[in-house]
Amino acid sequence: MWLLLTLRLLCAPASAPAALLEDGPKLATMAEGDARFEAQDLSGARRAYEAALAYAPSSPALLYRLAVIELLQRRPRMAWRHASAAARLDPGNPSALSLAAAALSEIQASASPAQIQRALEEGRVASAAWLAQVADTAEATAEATGATSDATTDAEALKARRRVEGRARLRLGQGEAAAVALRAGHHDALTLVDLAEAAALSGDLPRARHLAALARAALPSAHPSQDRLRVILHDPARP
């Protein structure tokens, strides 16, 4: 684990505005943080990176480094926040997305359905997304990271937020509530899969099978979601 994260740290997002890169105090404290990290002095590395962040609060490299430390120190929610911020600032670098997904996995592993439900009831959809691990791929992680802010007012972001909410409710077995949220969100072939599962949970098997058939036709035969569709269609033998 340590070696893997050390390698990830060395490949951390490096892009930043030129003015920030020329800031001597920021570079000095970041270099100190790297040295302390390599010496496995996580607390010292954190202090150095946080000091550097005061000079460059929008540095994806620093946010990524702090995310690595948060994950190593068993604070996955903070790791998620820092890594997802780094991914938004440096979308061309896959390392931050991978780290965000790893943090999300640790959050989900310790979450209970009651925690997810409470987050949804309180309107904390972003928190529910973290807890339910509704982001199953790097692309979905990016969507959940950038589009589920609970304070968002952007129309497209709100659609993505509703989609994430629907998928979280699916994890809780709330078919009707999931369908309402999913219908208000972005629509694609994977939305059909989710809507089919929501209908099945609600007991509307004819609609579930109809939506599952549409989704099956729209997705490649080797797509992982085909397994979910086979369950709904009661067709385990069909590839």
Question: How is this structure best described in words?
Answer:
- Helix 6 (76-89) crosses helix 10.
- This protein has helices at 2-10, 18-21, 24-38, 42-55, 60-72, 76-89, 94-109, 113-121, 125-132, 138-147, 155-171, 175-183, 189-201, 205-218, 226-233.
- The protein has two domains: 2-109, Tetratricopeptide repeat domain (Serine Threonine Protein Phosphatase 5, Tetratricopeptide repeat, Alpha Horseshoe), CATH 1.25.40; 134-233, Serine Threonine Protein Phosphatase 5, Tetratricopeptide repeat (Alpha Horseshoe).
- The chain is an all-alpha fold and 239 residues long.
What descriptors fit this protein?
mainly alpha, 239 residues, Serine Threonine Protein Phosphatase 5, Tetratricopeptide repeat, 2 domains, 15 helices
> In CATH terms, what is the architecture of the largest domain?
Alpha Horseshoe
- Fraction of residues in helix: over 70%
Which class do the helix and strand fractions yield?
Answer: mainly alpha
Helix and strand element order? HHHHHHHHHHHHHHH
Q: Note the beta-strand portion.
A: under 5%
Total domains, how many? Answer: 2
Give the CA-CA distance, first to last residue.
37 Å
Q: Identify low-pLDDT runs.
A: 6-11, 13-22, 135-143
The rounded Rg comes to 20 Å
Number of strands: 0
Please work out how many helical segments DSSP would assign: 15
What's the CATH topology label of the largest domain?
Serine Threonine Protein Phosphatase 5, Tetratricopeptide repeat
Outline, from the CA principal axes? Answer: elongated
Biggest pleated-sheet summary: none
State the fourth-level CATH superfamily of the largest domain: Tetratricopeptide repeat domain
CATH class categorisation of the largest domain = Mainly Alpha
Average residue-wise pLDDT: 74
